[in-house]
Amino acid sequence: MSMSSHSDIVVIGGGILGCSIASYLSQQTGLKITVVERTGLAEQTTSQAAGLLTRIRSSKALTVLAMETFAAIDQLAEHTGESLPLQRVGSLQVAASEQGLQQLNRLVTQAAAFAQNSEWLQPADAEQLAPWLSLTEQTRALYLPDDGYIDPYALCMAYARAARNRGVVFRLYQEVTSVLNEADKVYGVQLASGEILHAGLVIDAAGPWSTALARQQGVNLAMAPVRSHYWISAYHAQVLRGAPMTIFPDSGSYARPEVGGLLFGMRDKNAVTAHPSDLPNNLQGFSFATDANGDEALADGYVALQQQCSLLDELDLAHYISSVSSYTPDNIPLIGAMPGVEGFFAATGCSGAGVGLSGGIGRLVADLATGCTPFIDPAAFRLDRFGAVDSFDPDFIQRCAAARARKRSG
Predict the structure, then answer these.
(1) Residue 1 pLDDT class (50, 70, 90 cuts)
(2) Which residue of 33, 51, 64, 193 has the fewest C-beta atoms within 10 A of its own C-beta?
(3) pLDDT tens figures, 10-64
(4) What keywords are annotated for this sequence in UniProt (predicted)?
(5) Distance of CA 184 to the CA centre of its chain
(6) How far apart are CA 196 and CA 155, in angstroms?
(7) Which CATH architecture is the domain 4-52+152-223+329-391 placed in?
(8) Which CATH architecture has domain 87-148+225-325?
């Protein structure tokens, strides 16, 4: 193997963001693009995601990113001639609390602004669509028929296939050990083998490991590794295939069908974190030091969810899935140039929404990296919007954890 090679752009990370970015970049002719991943594609945080796809988000900027993901799925199907496993089942959002109702009303307003369909349902009609629901007459149910969910691994591989078909090179099972810099300008990366990949631009899309790479260049990314998790039940006859996914703002929970069982997730009252320096290279077998099996979180959140999902009492739990998400203090991703370092970009900090925002993030990064006019104003995603932070500081990590605990959307 040559100990030196050249690309126009090196993307670090073969998860859903790295593959989406590569797919969008590859639509620009004449670029030599290399993706480096130290395991296999989508083997880390991507494959553990719940795959919820909602179009309408808490802000206009996030909504634009999410809607681009739906457009990307359609474009990928056209490119490959194969339809992706997008379950176009819609979403039901149900709430009885004042705070939850305010969230539903904001969604209605946002949906109207984007000319998206939304419909208020009677509680009994919502229960018929999603038989695991148990709603009082005071509960309001909002149906968004154009939402859905997808296998995140399948979506990531579709991005990768499209990129590969347009000439992107994937270097799998090869680890980036350092980002190379001279006079505050990045000129490539070095692999564990000693090989140097020269590049005019390096994009850090390494998920929770992005922090350590950026820190090499003196940049503290404003995000922290926080636990995300969900449970999957055994088969139950009331969990209907094709039923809409449900989001519960009152309890900060969500649920959807999964191979005959119910997949459901809860927000921890006290979010569980890891220190960036403690993350292993491979998350297979990794567990958080606190509440490793999720038992405490399940006990804490059970009653609140059970009030609107009484089927919980009848379910036998079959699987518990715990993974690492990268949360920012405002639950908005970090996208753009690394402050003070030329030729180094970040695309990370997705706060549990990486799959749903992947198309929009890929397109925005490709626009910024190639000097095109961004399809959306990137200001909301600036890396320096929080001022000076120390991403290794325990107090800052808890600040990010608090953002996870406050989140009430899917």
Answers:
(1) very low
(2) 193
(3) 999 999 999 999 999 999 999 999 999 999 999 999 999 999 999 999 899 999 9
(4) Oxidoreductase
(5) 30
(6) 30
(7) 3-Layer(bba) Sandwich (3.50)
(8) 2-Layer Sandwich (3.30)
